[in-house]
């Protein structure tokens, strides 16, 4: 019976963390009774990450590397690792040691109890994040939960265990711009969340900028809901109704002979409705753009090289 664990780790400019990461995982998993693979996915790093990965994999039989052809983003890098993995369970975690390897034991315990997905969420506000980051993260989850059809715990992480039957379903999903944290909720199965306390990033700098985070928020809302389109329609309806009520008033003013004084209100109305129209068009355009990209059916990632056997 396959009992192997595949641990998938996306790496973007993590040359300083990899050695320590592998050592920590080896140390933690030494006292559990499961064989395991470490699948490290180099997501188009500009530093020497791939060299470190190659040399680690030549010394350590647990370690395998997957080199992507460029930077595809964390979710796509994780997807690459998940799809190439062949364990009875796949665990994803970050390369910077913010996800404590110790927790893997707890995940495995829940998996043995019969859970298909064991995900983690931050126990409390991340003590290492700046105040702005904390606020940003809260707004991020509030927005997603309010607008889209899935509910995410605040601080839910990409640190999770998934049974092979979940992986089989994930493989079937052919979505341009996947958002795994959402997809994982969407697939269902028996799920359990366990809290974890994030550690400080071991070395180097976080790759996510505000721009990337905003993009992620928009992607995740749009991937799980067309509600923004309803909002757009609602706004359009509200303002055209108001305009219909306003027009008789304008006409009566004209007939009564004091029309010219309305220049300011006219301009205000034009500008205002212009704005609303642009916004609605923008929302429709964004969905159309996503459809366009999806219609191309491009792969989520391209593998340049790997020392794993490729199944796809
Ligand atoms: N990462 C990646 N591709 C990217 C950005 C990040 O594979 O384009 C990886 C990174 O190497 C790390 C994980 O995703 O293993 C989380 O990234 P980071 O620590 O920069 O973000 P944060 O801790 O703020 O979530
Ligand atoms: Mg990090």
Structure, explained:
The chain contains ten helices and eight strands. The chain is of the alpha/beta class. The protein has two domains: 229 residues, Spore Coat Polysaccharide Biosynthesis Protein SpsA, Chain A, CATH 3.90.550; 69 residues. An eight-stranded mixed beta sheet has the order 7-5-6-4-1-2-3-8, sandwiched between helices. Helix 1 links the parallel strand 1 and strand 2. Helix 5 runs parallel beside helix 8 and helix 9 runs antiparallel to helix 10. The chain is elongated, with a radius of gyration of 25 Å. The two termini are 23 Å apart. Uridine-5'-diphosphate (UDP) binds next to strand 1 and helix 3.
Key traits:
binds uridine-5'-diphosphate; alpha/beta; elongated; binds magnesium ion; single chain; 312 residues; 8 strands
